[in-house]
Amino acid sequence: MEKIRVEDAVGAVLMHDMTQIIPGQSKGPRFRKGHIVKEEDIPVLLSMGKEHIYVWNQAKGLIHEDEAAERLAKAVAGPGLTFSETKEGKVNLLAEYDGLLYASEEGILALNSIENVVLATLHNHRPVKKGEKIAGTRVVPLMVEGEVVLEAERIAHEFSEPILQIRALRSHKIGIVTTGSEVYHGRIEDKFGPVLRKKAEKLGSVIIEQSFADDDVSMIQAKIRELIGQGAEMIFVTGGMSVDPDDLTPTAIRSMGADLVTYGAPVLPGAMFLLSYLDGIPVMGLPGCVMYSRTTVFDLVVTRLLAGEKLTRQDIVKYGHGGLCLECPECTYPHCPFGK
């Protein structure tokens, strides 16, 4: 940084914003940081009371904050991300398409542990829309040692996956098995199916068939196999998820040879959730709260499955921190702490 006379500043790069005040008319930045001073700017600067200004002195080994921010953004960005215009030393990372944000908490911590580096992001596994801002990056000083940026780039490239990426949700063919004698025998109307159809459509998938089963293990199993035979790539089993004697869904799924990931989740609502895989196909047992609560454990898990993840019990257990829904009168998910 160098202090020079305004008259000698033509061609120099401003180091900070310069505010112009016109009484009764306006107050705001007249020249932005990074502006290259032109001949016609000299009288304006003098009228603003500026006889000396700070300009960028291109010292060896230092790089401007704009270049640093651009390099940091490129270092952390993976598929599905694009960049905003560089402005005032900051670059925003934007979702290139709808999907699920994957943010490496270890990577974010590693970069922010470097002095003068800033990377701020949204929470991991957040659903995002095309054009949504998901992160911002910059360095703290106006000029930074090039070695700082080189270290950040090196660390970012050490991770097997990009520090930030958007994974699109793949369209799946989904089958529903609705259990319960009260629905099977027509004593009450099924309310679960319409809810799941609406959720599936919103996520870009399609319900290919909904079958109904009595409280009978063999019948539940047969309906699941029939749907898989019809090409279902994911199965939702509704009803029969509590500990009542007639609630047999967990027993049916377990005994048909499915690999059980979890029966139970540290999430409210959704504690009685079940996740398993049958020949690689996700089979979920959905508790009643999925039918009447706006957002549950189902919404947290299904997006990750549609993004191509194969979840483990540890993945489900981690939801305990942030797994309490506040049940707000007006649901704002994902703009809330749930699942974070």
From TrEMBL:
Keywords: Magnesium, Metal-binding, Molybdenum, Molybdenum cofactor biosynthesis, Transferase. CDD domains: MoeA_like. The keyword Repeat does not apply. SUPFAM superfamilies: Molybdenum cofactor biosynthesis proteins. One of its GO terms (molecular function) is metal ion binding. The lineage of its organism: Bacteria, Bacillati, Bacillota, Clostridia, Eubacteriales. PANTHER family: MOLYBDOPTERIN BIOSYNTHESIS PROTEIN, MOLYBDOPTERIN MOLYBDENUMTRANSFERASE. One of its GO terms (biological process) is Mo-molybdopterin cofactor biosynthetic process. Its EC number is 2.10.1.1. Pathway: Cofactor biosynthesis; molybdopterin biosynthesis. It holds the Pfam family MoCF_biosynth. This is Molybdopterin molybdenumtransferase. It catalyses: adenylyl-molybdopterin + molybdate = Mo-molybdopterin + AMP + H(+). One of its GO terms (cellular component) is cytosol. Belongs to the MoeA family. Signal peptide: none annotated. Its cofactor is Mg(2+). It is an enzyme of class 2 (transferase). Catalyzes the insertion of molybdate into adenylated molybdopterin with the concomitant release of AMP. The keyword Iron does not apply. Residues 175-307 form the MoaB/Mog domain.
